[in-house]
Amino acid sequence: MNGLRTVIICLVIACASVVSPAAAVPPAAAAKPSWSALPVPAAAPPVTVSDLAARGPGEAWATGYEHAADGLRPMLYRWDGTAWNRDTTFPGAAELGWLGKVQFVGEEVWIFHNRAGAGEILRRSTSGWSALPLPQTLWTYQDFAAVPGAAWVVGEDDTGLKVLHYDGSGWTTQSTPDGVIYLMGVTARTATDAWAWADTNTGTTVLRWDGTGWWDAEVPLPPNSNVHTILLEPSGRATIGGSQYTDGMPRTYLMTFNGRAWHTTYPSLGDTYTEGMTRGPDGALWLPVRSDRAFQSKYARVDGTRTTFSYGPERTNAIDVKPRELTRAGSSLLSFGTVEIYGSKPNLMSERLGG
Questions:
Q1: Mean pLDDT across the stretch 162-183?
Q2: Can you give the C-alpha Rg of the chain in angstroms?
Q3: CA nearest neighbour of 100 among 61, 55, 149, 139
């Protein structure tokens, strides 16, 4: 009788294990998303990437230029959610020049274009491309920003610093506070809220436009530091990335403004250049960093005081993989840059995290 009971108990246990395997084997942890390579139609190497911007998962634009024998030639690529394709339909696509920053203005795409030395803004709408010429030619075009109702181009001519402002109907030249020598970059959240970082008689300064004029924003930058970029967000948050020099050695710093005060941190990024920094779909800051692996790209994720790193896919025979720009594209991250394969000149690369 006891033997029969033992057999029955064993059968019950065996049946339970077959019917409910999850009870015996814990569920596997969810796999983390990894970076994947996205094919990019080759340009004429060597190439330089200028900017990358996305409106959502189905539209992104990357700009730059090719180094041709007769000079620089503009380079424009579009992501449609499935693939990268080169666009050669914009005005001046076959002429010497280069493309700079990309901005989304309402339903349009605006791109700064140096067209054989003359500056203009390319605008793409549902009806196609058009060009908005600048009111004057500058020696250098340092940066560009555009929002609904306003645009800025900063640079220099033979008289010095120039800030060109477009209000939707025409151009004017704006003045800056005394002591400003050079504007290194400009960005904007609205037509009455723009920021610029400048070289002045006393060092690097952050300026702010309030719709009536430019003024010193009195940002408490670290001593002996510069600014690489300012990341503005619709919530009102602003993040400054730059380098501070201590005993001649640079280290990266980040400053975050919550609408009331600035908070400075020094993440474990070495002397990383932060121009490619973006806010990811996970709420953390992401930026490309110098890789310690010749055949893989490397990215940093900064979330408060915690910094972690991830690598892109391995690339056969690569000796230098350099993602230059990062942008959020819906629930994924897109990067765009260059890869140098042994025996050839640097050409284009793109990678995606998630999606």
A1: 96
A2: 25
A3: 61
The model's pLDDT over 239-283, given as tens digits with 9 standing for 90+, comes to 999 999 998 899 999 999 998 999 999 999 999 999 999 999 999
Residue with token string 């004057």: 136
Closest CA to 289 of 315, 309, 267: 309
Contact 164, 175 (CB under 8 A): no
21: Cβ–Cβ under 8 A, 6 or more apart, which residues? none
Give the ranges where 26-133 is alpha helix by DSSP (H).
none
Structure tokens at 228: 């690489």
Quote the DSSP letter at residue 221. Answer: P
CA distance 277 to 279: 7
Task: Report how far Cα 339 is from the mean position of its chain's Cα atoms.
Answer: 17
Query: Distance from first CA to last CA of the chain, Å, rounded?
Result: 62
Angstrom distances, CA of residue 54 to CA of 31, 276, 338: 26, 13, 19
| Strand arrangement, sheet containing 180-190 | 180-190, 193-200, 203-209, 214-216
Contact 102, 109 (CB under 8 A): yes
Here the tokens at position 151 are 């645009």
Asked whether residue 76 carries a pLDDT value surpassing 50, the answer given is yes
Report the distance separating Cα 200 and Cα 140, nearest Å: 18
* Cβ(320)–Cβ(298) below 8 Å: no
Q: How many CB atoms lie within 10 A of CB 163?
A: 21
Looking at residue 123, what DSSP letter applies? E
DSSP-assigned letters across all residues of 161-204: EEEEEE-SS-EEEEP--TTEEEEEEEEEEETTEEEEEEEETTEE
- Kindly state the tokens that stand for 29: 């942890």
Q: Which residues of 164-188 are buried (b: 16+ CB within 10 A; e: fewer)?
A: bbbeeeeeeeeebeeebebbbbbbb
